[in-house]
Specification:
Layout lengths: L3 E2 L1 H14 L4 H20 L7 E6 L3 H16 L4 E5 L8 H7 L7 E3 L10 E6 L13 H10 L3 E5 L15 E5 L2 E2 L5 H6 L2 E5 L15 E3 L1 H6 L10 H4 L1 E5 L8 H11 L4 E7 L12 E5 L1 E2 L2 E2 L1 H8 L5 E6 L7 H11 L5 E3 L2 H7 L2 H6 L4 E3 L3 H10 L8 H12 L2 E4 L5 E3 L5 E4 L11 H12 L5 H23 L9 H13 L1
Parallel strand pairs: 1-8, 2-3, 2-5, 3-4, 5-6, 6-7, 7-9, 10-21, 11-12, 11-16, 12-13, 16-17, 17-18, 18-19
Antiparallel strand pairs: 14-15, 19-20, 20-21
Helix pairs in contact: 2-3, 3-4, 9-16, 9-18, 10-11, 11-12, 12-14, 16-17, 17-18
């Protein structure tokens, strides 16, 4: 269920299962509500100020999920649970009505006119789900405005109510049900969904997947696509990463990458840096090698020097702090001709764009990690015009560059030359900080030691986003710095894979 589909395709999938007798509507509502309640309890750990839970339920099946949540939550924790019905109980759908009649007495049912919200509330939006595209009507407009003006934390069930309309709930987290829906990854979805989580449903007849539909990475995907290290492994079997970069202007960047590679599974990490960058070492387990330079920037002799002793190097990452001089362009020219898997980031992307033919002719694995500005430079080198659609642009660049392209953004897209693609579901604005991309480079390089290129890049992106989410809980959105991320990426991996 990791493919990206539309809300309409999700409804068709459920209807097919109901018609074939392979799923029961009441059972699915119960599973969805219970699973969303579990996600809410996890979300509550980041909301220590929470004093009560207020669930807004509509009259359709999305509201039924909220009603099931109310029943479960009063059994699972001690906080008061208030259920606010948008419309009178007699208007509820059959499934919603069934579970409403079974509500425990501890659930406090209130009318929309009676409820008063506080900043210490944790709000559940189960008003409309996937069913609204037209301009918002009452009573939902008033309720959505009430939720948005409360300044309380909000968890949306399936899709924030009103997404796609002229007014929608602004959620801190959205728990989507079954499949990821494409509207969650639209511009409005990115602005209003907050963190994304997915809960599964037992639907034996799966959705009809559109051609070229991308996969979406989440924790379930990561667990499914993980390998365990054997007990008798040694450091060279875990793999050696060589990171090339640094300059007199950007001293610390390669050290961030190196620390991230170590925290994410590399057995050894060597940094090849100019003398001007060598004072940046702060991680004793990093091997730092000073290479030939010109005025504080690596030159072509640097690669010849390091290449004499890289037999045991499995993956090379280049670019963090490298600089953009004629010497670094020549350095990257030689690197592109090497017979090693490469991860290219930052200034290495600029240098590679000066020689697109060499980039496209490489027969060894290449992963490129541009943000949108760097992607535009690469596109210009291949006479491409970017469309502004991240999925389309990543696929175009991957095809032209003959490389896996990780296009950074609020929902990072990863594509290979054959058109296979992932969209990343993790992340937070806390990651928009200097050095964050350098950490991602090291993480991807470490993942490439054990996984195919597309999977390695997708895993690195997901764990990087998860690290930011965990770091945000400690330092807040504005307090996270790149130095935090290598350790939090290891914690994210531990929490997900345990």
């Amino acid at each position: 269920m990791n493919h990206l589909i539309s809300a309409a395709e999700m409804r068709l999938c459920e209807e097919r299962n109901f018609a074939a007798g392979t799923a029961d509507a009441l059972e699915l509502m119960h599973i969805a509500g219970c699973s969303c309640a579990d996600q809410l309890l996890k979300f509550m750990k980041s909301q220590p100020q929470c004093r009560r839970i207020v669930i807004f339920s509509g009259h359709g099946n999305n509201g039924g999920d909220g009603i099931v949540m109310a029943s479960q939550l009063v059994k699972m924790q001690d906080l008061p649970v208030i259920l606010v019905l948008a419309k009178p109980p007699e208007t509820l759908s059959p499934g919603s009505s069934y579970y409403f009649k079974q509500l425990p007495g501890q659930v406090n049912v209130q009318s929309p006119l009676a409820v008063k919200l506080n900043r210490s509330d944790l709000i559940v939006d189960a008003l409309l789900g996937t069913g609204c595209q037209a301009p918002m009507r009452e009573p939902y407009r008033q309720l959505i405005e009430l939720i948005n003006q409360s300044h309380a934390a909000v968890l949306a069930v399936d899709i924030p109510s009103g997404l796609g309309s002229d007014l929608c709930v602004k959620a801190n987290m959205t728990v989507t049900i079954g499949y990821f829906k494409d509207i969650l990854f639209s511009d409005a979805g990115i602005q209003n969904c907050g963190r994304l989580r997915r809960v599964t449903l037992p639907l034996p007849l799966t959705a009809e997947i559109p051609e070229n539909a991308p996969l979406v990475t989440d924790s379930k995907w990561l667990v499914k696509n993980s390998v365990k290290l054997p007990n008798d492994i040694h450091k060279y079997q875990r793999g050696k990463v060589l990171i090339l970069g640094g300059s007199q202007k950007y001293v610390q960047a390669p050290f961030l990458s190196g620390r991230a590679a170590l925290r994410n599974g590399a057995g050894l990490v060597e940094l090849g840096v100019p003398f001007a960058a060598s004072p940046g070492c702060g991680t004793l387990s990093l091997i730092v090698t000073q290479l030939p330079e010109t005025d504080g920037f690596l030159n072509k002799n640097a690669l010849e020097t390091i290449a004499q002793n890289w037999q045991k190097t499995a993956v090379i990452a280049a670019g963090p702090g490298l600089g953009r001089t004629p010497d670094t362009v020549e350095f990257i020219r030689l690197l592109l001709q090497s017979q090693k898997p490469l991860v290219l980031d930052a200034d290495a992307l600029f240098c590679a764009s000066q020689m697109p033919e060499l980039l496209a002719q490489r027969s060894y694995t290449t992963i490129l990690t541009p943000h949108r500005g760097e992607a535009a430079v690469l596109a210009a080198a291949f006479d491409l015009t970017l469309s502004g659609n991240d999925l389309q642009d990543a696929r175009q660049l991957a095809k032209c560059c003959k490389a896996v392209v990780l296009l950074k953004g609020p929902r990072t897209v990863i594509a290979d030359p054959d058109g296979n693609a992932f969209i990343n579901s993790s992340g937070t604005p806390a990651l928009a900080t200097a050095g964050s991309g350098d950490v991602l480079t090291g993480m991807i390089a470490a993942e490439l030691l054990r996984y195919p290129p597309l999977t390695a890049a997708a895993r690195g992106a997901f764990l990087h986003g998860a690290a930011g989410e965990i770091a945000e809980q400690t330092w807040g959105t504005c307090g996270v710095i790149a130095d935090d991320l290598p350790e939090f990426s290891a914690r994210a991996r531990q929490q997900i894979l345990l």
